[in-house]
Each structure stands twice: as structure tokens, then as C-alpha cells.
Amino acid sequence: MRDRPTTPPPQPPPSSGAPPPEASGSPPSHRTAARAAVALGACSVLLLVLVAVRWHPLVTLDGDIARTAHRWAVRDRALTQACRVLTDWVWDPLTMRLVCAAAAGWLVWRRAAWWTALWLAVAVALAAIVQQSVKAAVGRPRPVWPDPVDSAHYAAFPSGHALTATVVCGLLLWLLRRRGAGRALWRTAVAAAVVSVAGVGVTRVWLGVHWASDVLGGWLFGALLVALAVLVYEWPRHRRGTPAGRRG
Q1: Residue 41 backbone class (left: φ over 0; alpha: ψ -120 to 50; beta: rest)
Q2: Which of 190, 192, 172 is nearest to 99 (CA)?
Q3: Membrane-spanning regions, if any (predicted)?
Q4: What is the pLDDT along the chain (248 residues), one digit of tens a residue?
């Protein structure tokens, strides 16, 4: 006959933090993404309408910013050339998509995370479709200068560079956070993402190929697409009501 312990096993000390996600119902990531999607969707639609109807205060502000930036760009050719290198090679949409493709390949090779890799690739591909669709629907002309320092194709709104950088950086940051990235890696990734998303917007206005509201639209639509992608990713687990877990 086995001896039974006369005292209960030691219990871990009570936590002073918030309850775990599974104890409070739906996952916080799902709720947060849903709220963000609603807010970002409203802001994106509002800006799209203001651009489409050519709201005078917005057009005036865009013009003032564009003329000032172009005057500086013509005057400072060295900085302008640096902006062209950054926007055409470092923060170009193709470069951003290649970074995303490399991340998807790593997920498959090192983690066998086929679903996550597919989700990432499809989200970025859909972002490109949304970007071109909105451009075609709005048909906003780009700034025109007698002495241009750069050129670009297609309609202006929203900025494809800003939208793509926001989507790629946002999705990769969310994946890093979800998979428990270390503090040093997380801080480095956040810094790189902030510099990339903000920097690409500045370069597009500096080079005179976008209005400031085009860049703002790219940021808003990009963030909205990230929130919707997170909703799609988390939806099956949210419906089951199961704790957070890593998908393959």
C-alpha cells in the first residue's frame, strides 16, 4: 500500500498580473484586431472620401507640403539622391515582398509552419490587389513639376510604397511577438519597422511623386489590412474558444 502524503503539494505563488488570455474568454489578439479594424476602416474610408471629392482644406494642405518638399529636394541634390536609393531599392514594394517571401520560406524550413507561411504570402498578395484597385477607383493624379527629381507610374492614392511597407512590417512584427521574440530582437525589429514605414512615406513626398495624404492613406489601408489578416488568422481558434497556440 502506497504512502499518501500528509500535506498538500506546494502551490505556486499567486500572480499579481492579469489573468491568462484563456481565462478571460476570447483571445486579446482577436479582440484588439477587431477593434483596430473598425477604427482603421472608418479612418480609411473617411480619407478616401475626402480625397475623392477633393476636399479643399485637404487639397490645400497637400499642395503646401508638396511645394515646400519639392523646393528642398531641388536645392539639396545629395539628400534627394539618397532618398531615391532608399525608396527604389531599400523600401521598394518588391524589396518588401522579397523580405516577406524570405520570412515565409524560413517558417516552412525551420518551423514547418505551412499554414502561417501561406497566410503571410496571401495577405501580402491581397494587399497588392487592394492597393491597385483603390488606385484605379480613385484615379488621383500625382504632383506635376516643371523640374521633377523623380517619376512614378499609376495613380497617386494610396501610396503603394507606404501601404506595402506597413503591411509587411506589421505582419512580421505580429508574428515575432506571437512567437515570443527576445527583447533585443523585438526592439531591433520595432525600430527597423518604424524607420522603414515612416521613412518610405517621407521619401515619397520629398521626391514629389506623392501627396502627403497619399502616404497617410497608404499607412491607414496598410494597418487596416494587417488588422484584418490577424482576424483571419485568429478566427478558427476564436470560434473554438481554445487557448493560444502555435499553428503549423
Answers
A1: alpha
A2: 172
A3: 36-55, 116-134, 154-176, 188-209, 215-233
A4: 444 444 454 554 444 333 333 333 344 578 888 999 999 999 999 999 999 999 999 999 999 999 999 999 999 999 999 999 999 999 999 999 999 999 999 999 988 999 999 999 999 999 999 999 999 999 999 999 999 999 999 999 999 999 999 999 999 999 999 888 899 999 999 999 999 999 999 999 999 999 999 999 999 999 999 999 999 998 876 666 555 444 55
Residue keyed to cell 524589396: 95
Residue 95's region, left for phi above 0, alpha for psi from -120 to 50, else beta, is alpha
DSSP state of 147: S
For residue 84, the tally of other CB atoms under 10 A from its CB is 16
Contacts made by residues 97-105, CB under 8 angstroms, sequence distance 24+? 97/124, 97/128, 97/164, 97/168, 99/168, 99/172, 100/124, 100/168, 100/171, 100/172, 103/172, 103/175
Rounded CA separation 158/102 (Å):
26
Q: Cell numbers at residue 192, please?
A: 527597423
